[in-house]
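Checklist before submission:
- one chain only
- standard amino acids only
- sequence pasted in full

Submission:
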Amino acid sequence: MDELQALKEFRDGIAGAPVGDPARERTMAAVRVLIERELADPPRPARRSARRRLLAVGLAAGVVTAALAVLPLRQSSPSLVGRALAAIGSGSVLHVVGEMPTGKQLLDLRTGATTPVVQQEEIWFDEDRGLRRDVTRIGGVIVDDTFQSQAGGWTPHGIVYDCTWIAAHPTEATKARVSCNPSGDNGTTPHVVPRPKPTLDPGLAGFADGYRSALASGAARDGGSGVLDGRAVDWLVFDTSEGPERVALDATTHKPILIDAPHRQQLRVTAIETTDSADGRFQRPAPDETPVLPSLGKSIDEQRLALDGAAIGAAAPAGVWAGSSVAGLPLASATVQRLVSSYYEHARPTQTGVGLQLDYGSLTADGRRDYTKPYVTVSEAPSPELAAAYMWGAIRGAPPAPGRLLYEPIPAASADSTALAVGFTVVGGRAVAIQASSNDLLLAAARALRLAG
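Returned file contents:
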């Protein structure tokens, strides 16, 4: 008996029939079949879209409301996909918050306690209106914020140069040194290039873009159950062009808590929902929301110093060093330099200051650091902005507090003689970058830093 026949029997048999009448009971049985079919797991391999499924359930619910009081239904569990779809709601705006590791650690130099540094990604996405907002935070500090719409894209520091804008402003694009042509030639005549509707990129964004539609279309399949960090989970599997992507659903809430995508970092989902109101999220980021960072940092006018604390302290007032040796590696070179940091389109005045570089270990015949042997290099500047010449441009978020080392350790399995452990700390107000050939040497140098002279 199909759904249509069940509904016809309900219509024809229920009208005016008293309770206990055979025709009424036959109709109740038909309705029971209909409801159980709609609530049961969808058959495989035949799949129906979530839209059709929800419409059918809605029709059945509307028809049988008057009969529910006398109908002893069996409670069937909806499918895993259905529960996951219901868990995020049906609002027009998708909101996702997730965290992924940066690979960096924050070390307390006194206690040795370490904390992994994570990057938080927050996405608001309205596919129908073509609106998208991406906010990236590290340690609670906003490091990236982008708003995209069919009218264009913006960051806190101005427009996003896309091919539509470049085509409409060829002269300005050439001045800004941006182009969508491999030759870099934008011409001088404005023309129209349609702006594609904002979508979401691979990884977290790709998940947010496709999760709901993949659930509804049947592209997701049950991947079994398990335990993740002590929590019972059910696994959904999405087949992608890069391979299977697994999503762990909390067994109680049915919301995703982990995305394990091929060739990407695992993403911990801390919140996912849909809403019909984005609460003003779809607007241009504020200009002062993120700091203006130097676009270029360099060191010039290098001068060699005597290899003792007094000479170093005299040439670089308030300079720090790690002593005459680090873990048995002698101080082999000390140089003082003039540091220069400049900003794109002169957003801020160019800054200058005195920098210091100390090399521990062995030097090559031409007096440069020998990467084939154990080494430590300590580089420092009066401020994080000037320390951009010493890799500080790679820091996203707030600088580490004094007594803390922000570092990226060499993987334990690395046997590369040119492996590089990198760390950043603040000593006496000076921004210090440390490079070393091993994690142990990096930490030894960070703990040994003190004022020179």
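Reviewer check: The longest helix spans residues 22-39.
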